[in-house]
Amino acid sequence: MRRIIFHIDVNSAFLSWTAVKMVREGKEDIRLIPSVVSGDPSDRRSIITAASLPAKKLGIKTAEPVSMALRKCPSLLIVRGDWEWYKECSEGFIGICRSYSPVLQQFSIDECFIDMSFRCSGKDPVEVAASLKDEIKTKLGFTVNVGVGPNKLLAKMASDFEKPDKVHTLWYEEVEEKMWPLGVRDLLWVGRKTEERLLAYGIETIGDIARLDTGQLTRLVGQKFAQQLHENANGRDDSPVETEIAEAKSYSAERTFSKDLTDPKDIDRALFNVACIVAHRIRRDDFRASTVSMFIKHKDFTVIQKQCQTSRPTNVTAVILNEARRMLGEIWDGKTPLRQVGLGVTKLTHESAIQMSLFEDPAMEYYREWDRQYDEKHTGPDRYRSNAKKIQGEDGKTTVGDISVCPGQNPDGQ
Fold it and tell me: What is the mean pLDDT of residues 302-308?
């Protein structure tokens, strides 16, 4: 039996969901005019989280400040997001998708994979996908794109083709025609830094990656990432649609020093290292954490620990690190020698959009970009493969690498 995977992605989710609610209240459909969703419409420093198609045609992009968007379109309509409503829309969307196949993996608040191999037996997958797309539009009032392919990678790539309200296929026999001509940045998991590196060596399209010798690719991006990129560029992906995830209960990392430390700068760098490890791993497994805890161990092996609640679930390194720094100031006198520091997170959730209000801080997009670059450098593109597990007692010295300045730090490491 041929494997058939659907990837369903809500078109401009936050803006579409906001529009549905406003239309129900008798207001104008903001999808038809230049409009954006932002954390705080009254704050010109606030960051745009979603934009309508008319706004995008004017050059307005997500993650740019409202002030910049207003320069492009002075009459731009700016509306505040509504997390509770978004959660309700997401649940409705997932519910309809689940009615088509119980083998469903939610990838984020506005997208999911479903395995349709058995449900499409004897049927045209494109017709089934169109039926799913139209049912969501009719019942919920917003549109989706559906990508159809033989694996998760190709289904997701297909759903990113022309939007909105479309069904696209990307079968193995279509990879060379439909996917290879695309730019390298269009390949799943290729970030800006990797794109720059590939372009510098004349590798411009996905087809260029697919045809490139893996030895050459390894010299550019490292062995693990090179193998993954080469497989993906050729359309190969054997990851299953995972209906259940072995949920982690906590993530932690610690650093033991070869000699006891007293210098606050050295302690801070160690704390930075373990924060990078923990934040990276919860992002890898698509978690956010609501509780941050830390401990210090003195030379006589006595341990002092403390924990705090974050204002909302987070996976941002800078947020976790700054909470840990604050607690360190409360439990360490700044001079007693320390043998070890550790940091952990608990109260985990997969809910991604709950962080939307963080976009009110213009620095948050910088922090997220820093995290994206860190993830790309340290693990390669395996984030949609679930690998949740409990992590304890890992030594930051073997994992962190050579990043010396983190988000929220001064250049001297403080």
Answer: 87
- Tell me phi and psi for residue 313, to 5 degrees: -55, 140
Q: The tokens of 213 are what?
A: 């010798």
- This model's pTM is above 0.90: no
Average pLDDT over the chain, rounded to an integer: 84
Q: What is residue 405's predicted lDDT score, i.e. its pLDDT?
A: 39
Closest CA to 296 of 258, 233, 339: 339
Composition of the chain by helix, strand, coil, percent to 5: 45, 20, 35
Coil/strand/helix, residue 399: coil
The residue annotated as part of the active site, out of 88, 111, 135, 254, is: 111
SS3 at position 347 = strand
- Before 164, cis peptide (omega within 30)? yes
Q: Which of 195, 189, 202 is nearest to 375 (CA)?
A: 189
Average pLDDT for residues 161-174, to the nearest whole number? 95
Q: Euclidean distance between the first and final Cα of the chain, in Å?
A: 58
Contacts with 248 (C-beta within 8 Å, 6 or more apart), sequence order: 285, 287, 348, 388, 389, 390, 391
The CA-atom distances, in angstroms, between 169 and each of 205, 223, 296 are 20, 30, 54
Within 116-173, strands assigned E span: 144-149, 167-169
Strand partners, 288: 349
111 is catalytic: yes
Highest averaged pLDDT of the listed ranges 102-106, 239-243, 397-401: 102-106
Looking at the DSSP bridge assignments, the partners of residue 307 are 293
